Amino acid sequence: MGEKPILMSTENVKAILQGRKNDKKVYTNHGNENDLRHILKRIIYSVTISDFEKCWEWKRFINKDGYGTFTLNKKSRLVHRVMYFLFHGEFDNNLSVCHKWDNPKCVNPNHLFLGTRSDNMKDCFNKGRSNIKVVSFKGETNPMSKITRFQAMKIRKMAQSGEVTQRTIADYFGISQAHVSLIKLGKLWK
Ligand SMILES: [Zn+2]
Q1: What separation in Å is there between the alpha carbon of 154 and the centre of ligand 1?
Q2: Where in the chain are the domains?
């Protein structure tokens, strides 16, 4: 049987951040693009990490769908998919890599999970609900207690679809049902 692939871990990220303290410049050296540590270093130099538990937001190019991209072996890649691969190993290319906290710029490997092959937000949404205890993340401890415009758009679509209750959406996003209702009606976040 083949060797177990070497996966990246929080320790690798910490080592890179340590080195970065004395090296503030953007790391654009393409170097050996098959070396996982090297790829991770390129990514970590392009994110903001204020807290390991919170979102690691991509600071460089963001595509029209809100996802970070970068060039790897001359191809444009979605950073969150590369991060999932680095930390969790190979996965079926037909699967979506979804964001638990609905922040598409985030590349924190612990905020990512595999969804169904379609990029359909409802699939990711439902899978996310079954995978995580969202209700324990209300209020202050919620990593995304302030929703973004992008999230508001999703909330409106979900609420208008009628396929999930406003209560469910509210719990998922850590906001009140009244807040969901206002977003749905376009009274907040037009
Ligand atoms: Zn995140």
Answers
A1: 16
A2: 1-132, 138-190
